[in-house]
Structures are given as C-alpha cells and as structure tokens.
Design a protein that fits this description.
Rossmann fold; binds zinc ion
Length: about 270
C-alpha cells in the first residue's frame, strides 16, 4: 500500500467528501482541467477521484464511451455517480492502455518516495493516449508542517510529501513513454515574501481532521476507533512515566541527579 493506516482513516471520514467541503477554487480547477482533457478522447479514468466531482463535471460536459473513477477511500466512492472501483494508485485493477485518458489530481503529492515511482508507472501503464495531472505548485512543505502534540512528530497535516515545479512536471513521465505537451500554472494569488519567510517559524495548527501518522493522535471522535484508542492508551502509559512534579522541581534546582541510560529485563514463557 502507498500509505499508512492512520492516514487512510482520515479519508474514510464521510464529512470530508461532502461536496460543500470543496471550495470555489476546487470547482474552478475542475473546470480548467476538464478543458485540458483531449477533446477526441472517449474513455477516461480519474485516479484518486475522491467524491467524483471532477468526473461529474466531465460527464455533464460531453458524451463518453466510458468514464470511470477509482479511489482508495470507500467513503469517497459512495458519492461517485459513474463507474468506480476501490483501488490503490500503485496497483490499478485495469489493463494496459485500458483508458485513452488517465487523470490524476491532487494525489501524487501525497505519495511517499517508495510508492511515487510505481504510481507514475501505473498511470502510464493504463493510459493509452494522454495523462492529465495536477498537484500543488512549488509548495514549501517544510513551512506547512504541523507538530503532533503527543509524540512531537512534525508532518504535513494533509500528508503532502512531494513538491513540484515546472521542471519536475516536465520530467514526470519522461522515462515512461509520455512527453509533456503543456505545463501550466493555475490560480495565481499574491503572497508576501515576508509572510512566506515567517511561515518557516510557525507550526501549523493541529486541526480537526489531522491525525499523526506516527502515533495516531487526533482530536476527532470519528477517528477514535480501535487503532487510535490503542495508540492513545500506549501514549497515556508513557505519560505516567513522567516523574512527579516534586521530582521535576528538584531537578530544576539541584545541579545533578541520578539517572540511568538503560534498562534490561528477562522474561520466561509460562509453561
Ligand atoms: Zn504523534
């Protein structure tokens, strides 16, 4: 799989697939990308289709012989109104060249290095003619990180792991038999250099739908299933290991105190 269990849980929250959740900007992106889909194509697969808003806008715009979406999230697919399949991008359940066009929006920036190359291989494998990709532009991933309040792991709250500029987009499918015919930046906005710089020193808030990929910490009732409860219990057991307040105060005022670097244990099987 291309992901971690905690991350996958977020995408199973039904609320995030509510069409209302998607901004005007998202809809504009769907419209722009729709125009980039070659007009002479009759079959299309949208990989990581989410709730299928893009597919619906394409299906409404013109006739298709086949229009299909796939996504890893069951919750997302329950909203899709055209043919859809539950699948991971690194293992697409389709034949070689099964679709004339394969589109993939806001997906590959989420992929860790281990699955990134195989995901691109898969997109190229099932696409006969064209591939349409969109990703955030030149995102400064470091300055958009949050920190887990429980285990202090720093990570991108939307699990973005890759960043792309024009060069990166140009090279994407170079070794996979596809060449770029258009690379275009979308949705310009103004950002102050000062703001961009200061972001470096600011940690993003740990939000309602954030889940720590390492320990599973979250503040969302829907995410509190067996997996996260287990993670939390383990965490609270660790918290109890903190020395009592009086001891911590002593350590502040007394210059040295005894500590140990290691601990060992021997266990035997019960017969
Ligand atoms: Zn954590």
């Amino acid at each position: 799989m291309s992901s971690n269990l905690f991350e996958e849980q977020v995408y199973e929250i039904d609320e995030i697939w509510d069409p209302e959740w998607f901004s005007q900007g998202d809809h504009e992106r769907f419209a722009t990308l729709g125009k980039l889909v070659p007009e002479d194509s009759e079959t299309l697969l949208d990989v990581g289709c989410g709730n299928g808003l893009f597919l619906s806008s394409l299906a409404n715009a013109r006739e298709w012989k086949r229009i299909c979406g796939c996504d890893r999230s069951k919750a997302a697919l329950s909203h899709v109104t055209v043919e859809n399949h539950r699948a991971d991008i690194v293992n697409l359940p389709f034949y070689e060249n099964e679709f004339e066009v394969v589109s993939c929006q806001e997906v590959i920036e989420h992929l860790p290095s281990v699955s990134f190359e195989s995901a691109l291989d898969e997109l190229a494998r099932v696409a006969e003619k064209a591939i349409v990709i969109s990703v955030p532009y030149a995102e400064d991933i470091r300055s958009n990180q949050t920190e887990c309040p429980s285990c202090f792991t720093r990570f991108h709250p939307d699990f973005h792991m890759q960043s792309f500029d024009e060069d990166a987009m140009n090279r994407l499918f170079a070794s996979r038999g596809f060449r770029p015919v258009l690379v275009e930046k979308l949705a310009p906005f103004d950002v102050s250099r000062h703001f961009q710089f200061m972001k470096r020193f600011h940690t993003k808030t740990f939000q309602k739908f954030t889940i720590c990929p390492v320990c599973g910490f979250n503040q969302n009732d829907e995410l509190k299933d067996e997996l996260t409860v287990r993670a939390e219990n383990a965490q609270s057991e660790r918290k109890e290991l903190r020395p009592p307040l009086s001891e911590r105060f002593k350590r502040l005022v007394i210059p040295s105190y005894k500590c140990y670097r290691w601990i060992a244990a021997v266990y035997r099987a019960q017969s």
